[in-house]
Specification:
- There is one protein chain.
- This protein is about 50% helix and about 0% strand.
- It has about 120 residues and is an all-alpha fold.
- The chain has one domain.
């Protein structure tokens, strides 16, 4: 297994975003337990990857990120009031930009904001 590397630019993007708020996550697992599609990774480990700046791990979970139904069942049951669906939208926007080049004409300041409006 290859060791994980921290991408400081990604970590800064996550930390400076008003659309990503996973720091309150207590890692209790309620979100995973109530997820109607039963994805274990969603969102506990996924958000931890993002908070730690593990960009490669986040990008590797692209399928999981886009499988999320955004139904808010996890969010409604979150004991820490984490805005899980906003976090998922943020990650989708990040992937759209980084992997697919969508919104490539925007400057760095607004490159992720438009995908969350």
């Amino acid at each position: 297994m290859t060791p994980s590397s921290v991408d400081l630019e990604f970590a800064e993007t996550v930390a400076s975003s008003n659309d990503f708020d996973a720091w309150a996550c207590m890692n209790c697992g309620v979100c995973s337990a109530v997820c109607p599609i039963g994805i274990d990774l969603l969102p506990r480990k996924l958000f931890r990857y993002a908070v730690l700046g593990l960009k490669d791990e986040v990008l590797a979970e692209q399928d999981t990120i886009f499988q999320c139904l955004l139904c808010k069942l996890c969010e409604e049951n979150c004991t820490a009031n984490v805005h899980i669906t906003a976090n998922m939208r943020f990650l989708r926007g990040y992937i759209d930009q980084e992997k697919f080049g969508l919104d490539a004409g925007r400057g760095k300041e607004g490159r992720h904001a438009a995908s969350h409006a």
